[in-house]
Amino acid sequence: PSALITSEVKYGNGFHLSPMSQISPFTTIGKFVVINRSVSIGHHNTIEDFVTINPGVNIAGCCWIKENTIIGMGTTILDKVTIGKNTIIGAGSVVTREIPDNVIAYGSPAKIIRENK
Of 25, 34, 28, nearest to 47 (Cα)? Predict the structure, then answer.
């Protein structure tokens, strides 16, 4: 198995891409980002530094995931959603709208559960 990354993707130092993942064109990935297996990332996304995306995550187009964020296994992030820095999204969530900085959110649709200190 292999991963698919188009030539139009820009990525920083320390970037890790696991097998069976795909990244669509015009996505920008920061430094020390980990993208685990079977992740699908759509077009025109921005993923900042120190983000971890766990297995089975689907990210639609035009999303912005800010630094030091963790996206739980099997999460779906819909088009044009911004996820704030230092945020944790729980496994199996469906993110339909913006999630602010420094929170923990999960569910379908994802809701803010508490502050992430």
Answer: 28
Bridge partner residues of 5 (DSSP) = 23
Neighbours of 5 (CB within 10 A): 19
CB-based contact 13:32 (threshold 8 Å): yes
**Residue 43 appears among annotated catalytic residues:** yes
Q: Count Cα atoms within 13 angstroms, Cβ side, for 40.
A: 10
Exposure letters 47-76 (e unless 16+ CB within 10 A, then b): bbbbbbbbbbbebbeebbbbbbbbbbbbbb
pTM score: 0.95
CA 113 to chain centre: 19
Catalytic residue of the set 43, 46, 52, 78: 43
Give the pLDDT confidence of 39-95 residue by residue, as tens digits: 999 999 999 999 999 999 999 999 999 999 999 999 999 999 999 999 999 999 999
